[in-house]
Amino acid sequence: MEEATDVVETSADAVVVGGGLGGVAAALALLRAGRTVILSEEYDWLGGQLTSQAVPPDEHSWVERFGVTASYRALREGIRRYYRDHYPLTERSRGWRELNPGAGHVSRLCHEPRVAVAVIEAMLAPYRGSGRLRVLQPYRPVGADVDGDRVRAVRLAHRDGGGEITVVAPYVLDATETGELLPLTGTEYVTGFESQGDTGEPSAPAEAQPMNMQAVSVCFAIDHVDGDHTIDRPAAYDFWRSYQPSFWGDRLLSWRCPHPRTLEIVERSFTPNPDDDPLLVEADQRLNPGDANLWTFRRIAARRNFADGAYASDITLVNWPMIDYLEGPVIDVPDAAGHVAAARELSRSVLYWMQTEAPRADGGTGFPGLRLRGDVTGGGEGGLAQAPYIRESRRIRALYTVAEQDLSMAVRGDKGAVSYADSVGVGMYRIDLHPSTGGDNYIDVASSPFEIPLGALIPRRVTNLLPASKNIGTTHITNGAYRLHPVEWNVGEAAGALAAFCLDNDTVPHAVRRDEALLAAFQRRLTRDGVELRWPQVTGY
After folding, report:
1. To 10 degrees, the CA torsion angle through 491, 494, 500, 501?
2. Where would one find the signal peptide in this protein (predicted)?
3. Which among 30, 34, 105, 502 counts the fewest CB atoms within 10 Å?
4. What whole-number percentage of the chain has pLDDT above 90?
5. Cβ(259)–Cβ(266) under 8 Å?
6. What does residue 348 show for φ and ψ, rounded to 5 degrees?
7. d(Cα 342, Cα 413) in Å, to the nearest integer?
8. Nearest CA-CA partner of 324 in 431, 394, 252
9. Residue 521, Cβ neighbours under 10 Å: how many?
10. 430 DSSP assignment
11. Half-sphere exposure of residue 55: CA atoms within 13 angstroms, side-chain side
């Protein structure tokens, strides 16, 4: 990590602000193209939702065969290789080609966040050594110098004090979790729900609701061992213990909640350490969302994958319905930090409830053996994840905005998603919107495997700022499908490749999309680098 005591100015071919999955992928694309990069990140770990936010990867059913970029596949295989090289796997698990260390049901690759950090650092290490990559941690953007339709420089401040650094670069990539550079640079953007009149989307409301955004969540890891590991009673516990959203069917702190796809009130089970066989877990959300037993849903370490005695317990990651914070958004509000603090208090209240009051299958209450594993999530405040999981960002007003009718199976039927002439990648996930700060229930819509249009990565006016995360030209509705791990990585990789292509060809992003020859050349470059632009014949879910 680097510190500064005074304002310092430095330069590179590109500055990537935000070191989440999109930011890392963008930096790698630029570096592979021979460019110099400054990458900044506010938290102690690179990797965003995969690491500092502690969210196991949400991926589509075909991820082991196709539908992700080559570099994202390298990340996934690097994680498996790290386990084989450094962890005491059983021989049976070591030989498992599609090793799932946590045997979680949400993904074919559930793992401890720290392993992804190690792999990401290894992917970046050669470029640090060569001097072409400079990583500024922990730094966050606080200002920008804008000249007309161009961003000249970005000002970064050390998170813990100690000065500022101004980065001057021909291209600026916003890979922050909330699109922080958009207001700082005056780039036009939207937040929350657009209206049906604006987008024509079947699931949109009649009136726009810019402050109605998906819930944020502060995740945490737990195991279950002998002894009483009950945390101190949270100060706001009484508030959260009695809190009941109107559509929830029970108190938020309960095993009951709406089913995302049917909105029927269902009761989930919770059985720590069920002693199941990891190799028999079928992690395929096309067949089963996998959340019936919350313990195995997002489990990140299945003890039966490891030598006897290596793990006293499974480790599971709590990113469950009851930690969704609905009391207010964390974007474009004066009390954003207060809402994040309240979301942390909710998560600790959920843990305390589970330890002391949660109903057990044997008729008793409380699981005092649940132990908070802040060491697994990197020592975030109060033993929780370092960063809140933010599902919805500010989104640029783009040359093209992806709407629900582009990919919804209810609209498209057997035609598949709209195919874009300017595709720069592919993705797949259901349109999966969590309850929102405006009091809306889940919105969950079956989707067709979709493409990522270049037009969604280009602001209407600003010429050298590119979105590289969840801040592309989607709507509130389609963000629910475009926000997941492999899509964010693909978006970042495409944005980084676009900046490098423009520098190499002395052009600008708007011209690349407008000029057929330039667009074809850029798409050939993406394909050469292992970015898939089209899907084979597959059906969504």
Report:
1. -140
2. none
3. 34
4. 96
5. yes
6. -70, -30
7. 42
8. 252
9. 14
10. -
11. 23
431 and 454 Cβ atoms separated by less than 8 Å:
no
Structural tokens at position 263 = 């909105």
Residue 61, both tokens: 């059913």
Note the pLDDT tens digit of each residue in 439-494.
999 999 999 999 999 999 999 999 999 999 999 999 999 999 999 999 999 999 99
Beta bridge partners of 16: 39, 173
Is the Cβ–Cβ distance between 394 and 495 less than 8 Å?
A: no
Please give the Cα distance from 456 to 400 (Å, whole number): 5
List the structure tokens of 133: 């990559």
Chain-centre distance of CA 493, in angstroms? 15
273 φψ region: left (φ > 0), alpha (ψ -120 to 50), beta (else): left
Q: What angle do CA 320, 326, 330 make, to 5 degrees?
A: 105
Whether 14 and 175 have beta carbons less than 8 Å apart is answered as: no
- Inter-axis angle of helices 485-505 and 21-32, to 10 degrees? 30
* 531 touches 72 (CB < 8 A): no
For the chain, the 3-state helix, strand and coil shares in percent, each to the nearest 5, are: 30, 20, 50
Q: Which range is least confidently modeled, 2-6, 275-279, 387-391?
A: 2-6
Report the DSSP pairing between strands 171-174 and 14-17: parallel
User: DSSP E strands: which ranges in 159-308?
Assistant: 164-168, 171-174, 189-190, 220-224, 256-258, 265-267, 299-301
- The mean pLDDT value of the chain amounts to 97
Strand pairing class (164-168; 8-11): parallel
Q: Which residues pair with 154 in a beta bridge?
A: 144, 167
Q: Which two tokens stand for residue 177?
A: 């979790």
Q: Which tokens go with 147? A: 């000249």
Tell the residue number behind the tokens 């998906």, with chain if given.
214
Q: 456, 424 in Cβ contact below 8 A?
A: no
Please check whether residue 425 is in contact with residue 494, taking contact to mean a CB–CB distance below 8 angstroms.
yes
pLDDT of 405 > 70? The answer is yes
Token pair, residue 505, equals 């060809």
User: Quick one: tokens of 531?
Assistant: 């970015």
Q: In this structure, what token pair is assigned to residue 511?
A: 């011209």
- Helix, strand, or coil here: 58? coil
Separation of alpha carbons 147 and 185, rounded Å: 10
φ/ψ of 303, rounded to 5, equals -60, -25
- Integer Cα distance of 278 and 271 in angstroms: 15
Judge whether 323 and 53 are in contact, CB under 8 Å.
no
The helix/strand count (H/E) of the chain reads as 14, 21
Please report, as a single letter, which amino acid is at residue 81. R
Residue 46 tokens, joined:
């690179």
Angle at 441 between CA 291 and CA 221, to 5 degrees: 40
